[in-house]
Amino acid sequence: MITVAEAKTIINNNVTPLAAINLNLAQASGHILAEDSYANCDIPAFRQSAMDGYALKFEEDLKELTITGEMAAGTAIKSALKAGETHRIFTGAPLPEGADTVIMQEKVSVENGKIWLQDLNLKKGLNAREKGAEISAGDLAMSKGNLLTPAAIGFLAGIGITTVSVFPMPKVAIIVTGKELQKPGLTLNFGQVYESNSYSLTAALKNEGITEIAVFEADDELDILTNVLKEALANADVVLLTGGVSVGDYDFVIEASQRCGIAQLFHKVKQKPGKPLYFGKKEQQLVFGLPGNPSSVLSCYYNYVLPCLKQLSQKENTVLELKAVLTMAYQKPKGLTHFLKGFYKNGQASPLNAQDSYRLSSFAQANCLICLPEEEESFKEKQSVTILLLPS
Ligand SMILES: Nc1nc2c(c(=O)[nH]1)N[C@H]1C(S)=C(S)[C@@H](COP(=O)(O)OP(=O)(O)OC[C@H]3O[C@@H](n4cnc5c(N)ncnc54)[C@H](O)[C@@H]3O)O[C@H]1N2
Ligand code: MOO
């Protein structure tokens, strides 16, 4: 059995980031930019008013001007100012030729087609956005490696970009195994359990912006599982199996993986929950055999699967490791790293009740996993420990 750290290193060393693709900007949110992006034109594309008011050519001691035109936002008609003239103008509209300044309408009085200026702070260029002030044609708009946040998407759209080169999100297949599984909503017959792993995993993947998710079900039979795994591998970068990875007579994940040509990279990690975790690889495709207990599935997801998915898309890991003090003493046997479902607040981490790996009630309340190292058994109240902060 390998340690948690060894397992993480093996995964990390076996991930090849996915090749960049071109995406329509509207589909690119949450992706990492794979190429520098450049502006095609000046933005603003013309000298533009930042206020509703009057456009003018600035001079010291201006007192009055005659209104000779109007510029509304979106106007396609060009206009020019002569000496002593002003144009009514609105926010976003182009300034008439010859104008360099806009006075807010609150700072003038209007009478008989004229304005009287009452703005002591009026300066040349006030309330006028210069052509190319945001960005000039040919300038670098955003560098490779940037995350396309909503603001980044808006910025690129605002400079007229429609397509971007990004690192794609992985395509993920989930295979839930087990004869005992029943769909939530149907009657639970004797010996059955409601199938929840595909729900928790799908929800977690969708939280990451992963949309290509295929869910398969497989009975505990080697031939069936082998065929389902083959089908899943046909269109996935990552396959997540749940259940069937331990030592029982009906646990076929290891054998089915071998039959599908997947090379085993490890099986079994010194941890609780999730001891029988399996990881394998077929060319660039990655396969996780997650131990079936619902809490083991999620504990392994946050520890191993999520960082791997992030790496595939060249994104930062969002499971943050930090230090916290325990709010209570805790005992565990030596030999395995324990990941306790916990609640973190103001630097303190509280282990929750119901730590058993078949239960999700505590995980449903948790915002962190408290990591208790393999070789330690006694933890004091206020002792500093490492926690993994879970993404919401
Ligand atoms: N003799 C041993 N028995 C077990 C060991 C061991 O070392 N020696 N390890 C235990 C540990 S730890 C775990 S974890 C489980 C993992 O076993 P499997 O991955 O083979 O999982 P299953 O046996 O198929 O299922 C375990 C448990 O989870 C329930 N389950 C499975 N899939 C789902 C699902 N999609 N939704 C909800 N619940 C699910 C299943 O009904 C079982 O109760 O092995 C121990 N045994
Ligand atoms: O390790 Mo298993 O995941 O405890 O139940």
From TrEMBL:
Keywords: Magnesium, Metal-binding, Molybdenum, Molybdenum cofactor biosynthesis, Transferase. One of its GO terms (biological process) is Mo-molybdopterin cofactor biosynthetic process. The keyword Plastid does not apply. It is an enzyme of class 2 (transferase). Residues 173-311 form the MoaB/Mog domain. The keyword Magnesium applies. It holds the Pfam family MoeA_C. It comes from the Bacteria. It catalyses: adenylyl-molybdopterin + molybdate = Mo-molybdopterin + AMP + H(+). Its EC number is 2.10.1.1. Pathway: Cofactor biosynthesis; molybdopterin biosynthesis. Its cofactor is Mg(2+). One of its GO terms (molecular function) is molybdopterin molybdotransferase activity. Belongs to the MoeA family. Catalyzes the insertion of molybdate into adenylated molybdopterin with the concomitant release of AMP. NCBIfam families: Glp_gephyrin (NF045515), molyb_syn (TIGR00177). This is Molybdopterin molybdenumtransferase.
